[in-house]
Amino acid sequence: MAIGATSITLDQEIGWLARVVTTAIEAEFSDPPSNEWVDISSAPDFATDNSIYATMVRNASLSEAERLILALAMAPEISPSTLDPFMITNQAINRGFTEFGGQISSSGGFQPTIQTALFVLSGGSMKRRIEAMNLFLPSASLIASGFLDIKDNAEQRQIETALRINRKTIQQLKGLPPLPKETSENFPAKTLTSKLGWEDLVLPDDTRYEVEEILCWMKHGRTLLSDPYIGPRLKPGFRSLFFGPPGTGKTLTAALLGNRTGRDVYRIDLSMVVSKWIGETEKNLAEVFDTAEGEDWILFFDEADALFGKRTDVTHANDRHANQEVSYILQRIEDFNGVIILASNLKGNMDVAFTRRFQSVIEFTPPGPDERLELWSNAFGGRTYLTDDVDLRTLADSFELTGGEICNVLQFCLLDMFREGHKRLTFDDIAQGVARESRKNGKYEEVLL
Q1: Rounded CA gap, 161 and 143, in Å?
Q2: CB under 8 Å, gap of 24 or more: what pairs does 326-331 form?
Q3: Which of 120, 192, 232, 302 is the most buried (most CB within 10 A)?
Q4: What is the pLDDT of residues 172-196, one digit of tens each?
Q5: 22's torsion region: left (phi>0), alpha (psi -120 to 50) or beta?
Q6: How many C-beta neighbours within 10 Å does residue 265 have?
C-alpha cells in the first residue's frame, strides 16, 4: 500500500519537475530571453498525502525550491527522460549549453548538477541565483536532511557538483532498511557485527553502567539537543574512549551497541586512513566523517593510538604538521553529530586534548573471578562437551584470562578434541589449552594447578 502510494506521489512530483524544466528552457530561448522567474508554486500538495515520499518531505520541512532540487536529483534514478531537454546542443559551439550545467552519465543520460538547479530556480536573475545558492549550504534543510549524496565539502557548494540521491533515501522510498555502506578507497571502513547478544557481554558493574550511558544518549540525545535551554549547552553527538588490555570486550561492546540500537557500526580501517604524505590523512578522514554525517551510524576507531596519539614537541616542519593533523582530527570529532568510539590499549597513549572532550572514558579491566566464571560458563554453555571432573569455578579462580583468551582456549580444545576423536573434554584438556594460550601471550612458562 505504502509503496503504491509513493509511486503515485513520485509520478506527480516528477510531472511537476518536467513542467518547470520545460518552462525554464522555453524562457531561456524566447526572443528576447525572458528574465521572469519560473513559477514553481504549482508543486503537488502533500498536506494529506501519507505516502513515504510525502512524509519524508513534510518531516524535513522542505520548501518548494528544495523539493525541486530533490526531484532533479531523483530524476536520473526514476525518470531519466525527464531531463532529456537539457541535452540539446548549442549549434554555435557544438556542445551543451553552459547555463544548464550537468554531466553526461555513463549510461548516456543527463546528470544534473548544482548549476542545473540554479538555472531552473533563478533564470537570468543574479539576485535569485544568490538566494538559490544558499539552499546548498550545509545548514540548509535539504542538505542537513541527508537526502542527497553530495561529495563536495566546501562551505559553499561548487556549481559543478553533481546532484545525486543517496542510497539511504532510495531505500526509504522503497520501504526497505538502509543498505550497509561498502568499503572503498573513499570510505575506509567496514561494518562491525557480532552474533552474540547483549546478555553475552560480561563486564564489571561500573563498566556496564558507563556503557549503558551511551545507550541512553542514543535513545534520548535528540530530545536533549532539541530542548531550547539544554540543547545550546551541549555538543552534537557522543564521544567515548574505551581503553584496556586486548580481549577485555572493547570491540564486542561497540558491535553490541549497534545490535542493541539497530544502528550500523563501522570499524575504520586505519591502514587506509593514516598516510605519510602531508595532508592525505586529513583528506581520508574527511571522507569518513562527510560520508557518515547524518547517517545515524556508530564510528569505531580500533587501536586508535596510531591516529589520535599524543602531540610531539615541534622540532621541525613534520612535527608541526603532525600537530596540525591532530588538531584537525580533534575538530572533526568534536563537530560530528553521531556516536564515535575510540579504542586504545592504554589511556596514557592518547592526547589529553582528545580525552577531555569525550563524554565518557571507560576502562575495560581484565575480568575478575566472578566475571571469568560467567565467561567460562558462556563459553561451555550447557557443559555438553565437558566431563564431570571439570569445575568451572576452579578454572575461573586459577587462570587470569580475558574473555578473548577464553574463546581462544575454547576453540583450541574443541578442535583438539575432534582431531583426537574424543567425545568430551577433561579438566586436563582445558588446562593444556590454557597453558598454550598463556605461553602464546608470554604470561607464563607453564600453568601450575
Answers
A1: 13
A2: 326/351, 326/353, 327/353, 328/282, 328/285, 329/282, 329/285, 330/354, 330/357
A3: 120
A4: 776 655 555 555 556 677 889 898 8
A5: alpha
A6: 24
Total count of residues recorded for the chain: 449
C-alpha triplet 222, 224, 226: angle, nearest 5°:
70
Q: C-alpha distances in angstroms, 162 versus 25, 69, 82, 151?
A: 20, 11, 17, 8
- Which one, of 123, 77, 75, lies nearest residue 100 by Cα? 123
- Kindly state the average pLDDT of the residues 294-310: 76
CA distance 380 to 358: 37
Asked if 253 and 285 touch (Cβ cutoff 8 Å), the reply is: no
Helices 64-78 and 114-122: crossing angle in degrees, nearest 10, is 130
d(CA 96, CA 98): 6
**Amino acid in position 82:** T
Q: Distance of CA 88 to CAs 46, 82, 96, 195, Å?
A: 33, 13, 6, 55
Specify whether the backbone of 146 is left (phi greater than 0), alpha (psi in -120 to 50) or beta: left
Residue type, 333: I
* pLDDT tens figures, 360-403: 999 999 999 999 999 999 888 777 889 888 899 999 998 889 99
Q: Which domains does the chain have, with CATH numbers?
A: 2-173 (no CATH), 189-363 (3.40.50.300), 369-440 (1.10.8.60)
Q: Which amino acid is at 290?
A: D
In angstroms, the CA 323 to CA 72 distance is 43
Q: Kind of pairing, strands 110-111 and 103-104?
A: antiparallel
- Give the integer Cα–Cα distance in Å for 366 and 281: 33
Top mean-pLDDT range of 229-238, 348-357, 429-438: 429-438
Which residue in the block uniquely carries the three cell numbers 579491566? Answer: 365
C-alpha span between 403 and 384 (Å, rounded): 20
Task: Detail the DSSP E strand segments found in 81-168.
Answer: 89-90, 95-96, 103-104, 110-111
17's CB contacts (< 8 A; 6+ apart) are: 68, 71, 72, 75, 82
Q: Which three cell numbers stand for residue 326?
A: 591532530
**Residue 430: CB atoms within 10 Å:** 24
Q: Where are the beta strands (DSSP E) in 25-136?
A: 89-90, 95-96, 103-104, 110-111
User: What span, in angstroms and rounded, lies between the C-alpha atoms of 374 and 385?
Assistant: 17
The tens digit of pLDDT for each residue in 145-163 reads 778 877 544 444 577 888 8
